[in-house]
Amino acid sequence: MAQLWGGRFTKETDKLVYNFNASISFDQKFYEQDIRGSKAHVTMLAKQGILTEKERDEIIKGLEGILKDVREGTLEITSEYEDIHSFVEASLIDRIGDAGKKLHTGRSRNDQVALDMKLYVRDELDGIDEEVKKLLLALHKIMEEHVHTYMPGFTHLQKAQPVTLSHHIGAYFEMFRRDRGRLCDIRKRMNTCPLGAGALAGTTYPLDRAYTAEILGFDEPTRNSMDSVSDRDYVIELLSALSTIMMHLSRFSEEIILWNSNEYRFVEIDDAYSTGSSIMPQKKNPDIAELVRGKTGRVYGALMSILTTMKGIPLAYNKDMQEDKELTFDAIDTVKGCLALFTGMVSTMQFRTENMEASAKNGFTNATDAADYLVNHGVPFRDAHGIVGRLVLTCLEKGISLDELSLEEYKAISPVFEEDIYEAISMRTCVEKRITWGAPGPEVMEQVIAENKKYIEK
Description:
Elements: H1 15-21, H2 24-27, H3 31-47, H4 53-72, H5 84-96, H6 109-145, E1 150-155, E2 158-164, H7 165-190, E3 192-193, H8 209-215, E4 220-221, H9 225-230, H10 233-259, E5 267-268, H11 287-310, H12 324-348, E6 350-351, H13 353-362, H14 367-376, H15 381-398, H16 407-413, H17 421-424, H18 427-432, H19 442-457
Parallel strand pairs: 3-4
Antiparallel strand pairs: 1-2, 5-6
Helix pairs in contact: 3-4, 3-6, 3-8, 4-5, 6-7, 6-12, 6-19, 7-10, 10-11, 10-12, 11-12, 14-15
């Protein structure tokens, strides 16, 4: 067993205890971050005269060789080592000898793992942000193409008022835009470097922590060494943001599942993102949307797990905090996979626009506009509300829409109605006259789409 701390102990750790304690099975995921941090550390040590330039160059060359060999598969990270730090240091000593033993000067595994985790999360934040941006681009394209595609808007899953597909998709654009904002906020807030904090109380070596932070792309070093090694707020914030992304994906998936049903028939999901039934040949199932909806709970679980783990931990570092890695790695992989697949599904999905418009008409989504027509002709709104309610009841009895009632039938309920009622309650009029900022009117939507384009390009 390759351990960095054997001097204090007089006998081997029990194998079961060792395996329970070890993290190599999952923290090997950030071998690149560990090597990047080590290169920065020895560069700073040489600048401060703690290592010679020759020792620095030997160590960096050795680290780069390890990185290359791991990437190419000629050097395997095995369970012989307790963690990724042990693997890198032991491999370095094997390759360059005594100079490798100086790698850990002025550093603890506590600030080392805190750095590795921050570097990994920061890298992954950028990758997740890019996936959200790709989804926004796909949504933006749909919005551009469907400014005049009419569909029912819903409240309580009941048809309410007519909107456009562009407007409906625009609501999800806003959600994912906010998600990008949260990722950006987290990245900015977490961008302080813990390296040099030591185990919890710094070190007596004359480290230049600001220089190390600069090399690694951090804004500044952390300001408290105890907080440096015990802080996992950024992990909690990340998992919270990922949970929100998954919540948005799940809501959207739920709608696509409904829209794909025989009752709605609003969308046709591409064959590449659907599956069939083993027994029912007519079935085309929205499996990707269902899996995204299902995997949301998995990411929520990661957030609850880390919150529960951290709630009772005193300062500073405790081994409990090792539990942050597996669940964070899994949540990140889950969200990136869901975003990529969801974007592909949405990008290839066909919209059945005729069914959408017919659904809006048959659901009396223009009833409010019929009431507004009466109000504009001098009828008090409360009376207009009752009149249109009677119109809807008549339509239900006849199995027709408001558009299909004859003028005589309109006048039988209220003599105020004239021929222009049909234009007033057409889908086009109902949508186009909604011109307040944020409404589905085409002029407003074109402005929103133009702003969205600037945002994405920025």
